[in-house]
Amino acid sequence: MSRAATVPLVQVSIDRIVSEGHDVKTFVLEPATEPASKRLNYLAGQFLTLRLPVPADRPVMRSYSISTCPVSDPRLAVTVKRSPGGPGSNWLFEQAAPGMTLDVLPPAGYFTLDGADGEVLLFAAGVGITPLYSLCKYALAASDRKVYLHYSGRHRDATPFATALEHLERSHPARMRLDLWMTGTHGRLDGTTVRNILATADAPTVYVCGPAGYQAMVIDALVAAGHPRGSIRTESSGPAPRRP
Ligand SMILES: Cc1cc2nc3c(=O)[nH]c(=O)nc-3n(C[C@H](O)[C@H](O)[C@H](O)COP(=O)(O)OP(=O)(O)OC[C@H]3O[C@@H](n4cnc5c(N)ncnc54)[C@H](O)[C@@H]3O)c2cc1C
Q: Does 200 lie in the same domain as 142?
């Protein structure tokens, strides 16, 4: 039985919708009722599953990573990339509006910060930045750990939160390092670069989020360099791969 069938839904209302560049929007949410507020408590890196009325008699459930930080952001938000022809993301882009109420499943997921010491090493590509932006803000706000974020995007307009991340790096010069890797200029990230980054970090756990091919390449490079597979955490960032 699906989680949607067993876990009661929570009502949220859309507070604001913010454009994050080409075909990416952030939906800032707030609890629609007082009891909803407790059921929306979340850990950095978790996701929310939205019930979207597309159409109203056949709603779809779509999961989106939370892009905010539970200790430094006042409200919870998810960040969505439009999938061409995809019913859920296109409904959010075209029909969703501030003030509208949506049903969601409470936050869930295990892509959360380990309890260890040492550096927090993050690899993101495209909209895969969403849970890593949350983890990055949380590690800086709630611990004294160093954070290294390697973030790939086709071009500046396809790297949501780039400006905010640069600002975070400037505000934490001794603790945060950001590598913005524009694939339009540098080409795709390769295994040698991943191995070099790993060699300079003292990171118990590595977090990876991006398209399937990107994740596979980063994981292979990390494992080949001796990092235990069990200490690499991954999260989905896009539609599930189609069955042949
Ligand atoms: C844990 C988790 C976290 C996620 N976090 C994020 C996030 O932070 N941000 C984000 O943007 N997304 C995220 N996703 C992906 C998100 O849940 C949706 O899958 C995504 O928005 C696409 O949904 P959709 O309804 O628009 O399109 P879908 O219905 O999923 O379709 C996706 C694409 O496939 C095409 N398609 C679908 N079915 C067929 C078919 N039978 N034949 C041919 N083409 C087909 C559609 O036209 C569309 O282009 C996450 C997913 C998971 C599981």
A: yes
